[in-house]
Amino acid sequence: GKPIEVGPDDNPRTLLAAVDLAFYNFSENQEAEDILQADALERKASSFPVADGFFIRAGGRHRKIKSEDLLYVEADGSYAKVVTGDGSHVISQNLSAFQRKVQIPGLIRIHRSYLVNIHRVDSFDETFVYLGNAALPLSKSYRPDFLAVLNAL
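and the corresponding structure tokens:
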């Protein structure tokens, strides 16, 4: 909108009204911008939905990893190792970026370096989660969230 001018002869009420109007205009513009960005993200996300997995680059092409085949994902610096029942693949994303981007139901963090597919957990104790031959550390800080999603008796 047009700039609001406040001169030296204006009283504090005029100044407060000008500030309120400026905040209102700013918030209206921000809200409109947020709506436009959300629409763009929604269009982008719905372009090619893959409900049952995700694709990773392997051997010069993109290979589909089905959610049900995923065992766990392990942090490796700015990379991550995606481990499935039939092998593993290194991807050029860190664990947090992977977790944000790949929305798989049942994928839960158990340690700062590990995400597990809750549907593939064979057993667990106070300090480890077992999936097939792998024994992954269960940290104290992530244990409550892990236990909350299980039907443990």
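(Above: one complete record from the training split.) The helical segments are 12-45, 95-101, 143-148.
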